[in-house]
Amino acid sequence: xxxxxxxxxxxxxxxxxxxxxxxxxxxxxxxxxxxxxxxxxxxxxxxxxxxxxxxxxxxxxxxxxxxxxxxxxxxxxxxxxxxxxxxxxxxxxxxxxxxxxxxxxxxxxxxxxxxxxxxxxxxxxxxxxxxxxxxxxxxxxxxxxxxxxxxxxxxxxxxxxxxxxxxxxxxxxxxxxxxxxxxxxxxxxxxxxxxxxxxxxxxxxxxxxxxxxxxxxxxxxxxxxxxxxxxxxxxxxxxxxxxxxxxxxxxxxxxxxxxxxxxxxxxxxxxxxxxxxxxxxxxxxxxxxxxx
Length: 292
Ligand SMILES: [Zn+2]
Prior knowledge:
Blueprint: E1 2-7, E2 28-32, E3 38-41, H1 46-54, E4 65-69, H2 75-78, E5 93-98, H3 104-110, E6 128-133, E7 141-143, E8 146-155, E9 158-167, E10 170-175, H4 187-192, E11 198-202, H5 207-211, H6 232-242, E12 246-250, H7 258-274, E13 280-283, E14 289-291
Parallel strand pairs: 3-4, 4-5, 5-6, 10-11, 11-12, 12-13
Antiparallel strand pairs: 1-2, 1-14, 2-3, 7-8, 8-9, 9-10
The structure holds zinc ion (ZN).
Zinc ion is lined by residues 72, 74, 177.
């Protein structure tokens, strides 16, 4: 299995020069099986750049297939889809899976409403697009040699979906957003990440911000309230509890620059070492390619 980060930023994209080492695009992760079958985790702004990269291959000739797995439908997880160029090429097959939110297809159609977009409808995009609800799926989804299972996770005022993707005994776990209610790790997330070779887990807050209720944005008290997110320490604790091998902090706060993120990662490395654990931790960075 191969993995590439195309978008790692939470809430909204950032063009701040000091933040581009990690990257400024909202969530999008490319996953390939050993035979190149393609799954995409979330459709944030990073999906635009992934789409461009696909044009040199079968997706540029109307012979491509792609399965998009949505964690939920907040803007930052779907805003890249209207800009996903392979979805405009006739012959391409695009499957979009999501859950928790009823009427997923209506929501995706809604963001193309002429009030927001000149596209008007998914039907105008050109490719064959199928939108499917996870609730109707029994058992794991198969895409090529990838086996995909999911869990419903709590996230503040709404819920979202976490994914586990396996191939040949290797596992990737993706938790784009989650709130560990009351500070206790959500057992559903621990189970989903059990023994994962790679865990991608959000770390929108520092531990201090989370302790303050996570309600004050970094830009000050007048910022929009932010709830339903995790901290660096929680992501680390979850990876340790699940026995994951490698953890990537994901969904970086838009106000946090590269230096701040690196300092937070370094502190977590010290924490892991102090516990004598073998867990490897790093920040998810756009452009990073992983092999599992
Ligand atoms: Zn959200």
